[in-house]
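Tutorial, part two.
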Amino acid sequence: MRFSEFGGKEIIDLNNGERIGNVGQTDMVIDSDSGEIQAIVLPTGSLLGLGRKKEEVIVPWESIRKIGSEMIIIETTQKTKVLK
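Running the prediction step on this input gives:
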């Protein structure tokens, strides 16, 4: 799959059906030696920096259960939140 095909997909939590984010808003952690994707980094938090603190949700590649034409299903038992 090309990155251009990956972009724009919604990321959905398998456990509760919650929308986690959109691939277009993410960063990826890529192994520089193999070129494999290790994790997806999703920004979460407040709009325009107002309200609660900004966080990032790091989703290990192994947490991805299914990549469909419009969405990516992940299992959140393996996700990690990191405060910024």
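DSSP finds one helix and eight strands in the chain. In part three we will examine how such features are distributed along the chain.
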